[in-house]
Write a structure and sequence with these properties.
Strand order of the largest sheet: 1-3-2
Organism: Methanolobus profundi
Protein name: DUF4177 domain-containing protein
Order of helices and strands: EHEE
Strand content: over 45%
């Protein structure tokens, strides 16, 4: 079983084109979206939880 690296990041929420752009950029770096938090902060950001295989560090 491959070891995973995890990260939690804030992404723009509600501006769907910007959100999609943010998520696509993270995906190009090997990050897989696991889930979103349910809370949107005062800046319109939402927490997104990601994982990627440790061997993807060279992606």
């Amino acid at each position: 079983m491959a070891p995973w690296e995890y990260d939690i990041r804030s992404v723009r929420y509600g501006e769907w084109d910007s959100t999609k752009e943010d998520l696509n950029e993270l995906g190009m770096d090997g990050w897989e979206l696991i889930r979103f938090s349910e809370d949107v902060d005062e800046n319109g950001n939402i927490k997104a939880f990601f994982k990627r295989p440790v061997d993807c560090l060279e992606c």
